[in-house]
Structures are given as structure tokens and as C-alpha cells.
Design a protein that fits this description.
alpha+beta, Jelly Rolls, 4-stranded antiparallel beta sheet
Amino acid sequence: MLPPSTLPTPVELFADQQDGDLLTYPTGGLVFRVGDPVDAIYALQRGMVELSTEGEPGKLRYSAGEIFSYEDLAGSRLVHSHDATALTPVEVVRLPKARFVELILRHPTIVLALLERQHSRLREQRLEARHYY
């Protein structure tokens, strides 16, 4: 158990959920495809995953300790807008959407962690964009 002053990371919270499924994928394996139903969120415990859409520039990469597919959940999409491909052997915890909502209600700080990560990604994109001008 963590000391009271230490907040668990989102991945640690996911790993503690009884309804979460621990899944492994080999390099090149598809975690989900464009058009698959958005019914879960994923916490990456090991490896690297890339989200991409054919014909669109830019790719999102996630590494161990990060959560992905929350963009589709937050956007209330019914189907995934990206393919999620394992760039290395990966281990993920798949948490059903309803359990994720319950987790947010019990641990609202998880939302702050997701917002911070999204803000960091936007900052990185802005810095990269400046190099093109």
C-alpha cells in the first residue's frame, strides 16, 4: 500500500481494478483498429504503442506508464478514430468504459493526471511546429 501522501499513478489505479483485463501484444499487434467500438480505455504497463490513421500526418506514441484511447472516450465517439499498434511487445490493462467512469468518481485526481499529460503533448506539438516556420 502507498503512503497516504503519495498519490497512485493512473496506471497503478488501473492495475488495481478487478474488471481490468491484462493483455499482451507482440510487436506489430493491433490493440484496436479504426472503426472498432470505443468500449474501454487502456493503461500501458510495458512497451510502446502508436496511434495512427491511414492518410493522416502525425502519429501519437505512448510508452509505459501512460493511458491511451481516452481521447475517443472523452469525445463520446462510438468507434475508434485511430489504429493502436504495438511498436514493441506490450502489456496493457484494458478497463471497460463504465469501470473507468467509476474510477474517476472514486479517484478524481486521475483526471488531473490525464489533463497534465494532454497539456504536455500540446506543448510539445507547438514547439515542433515552430521549427517548421
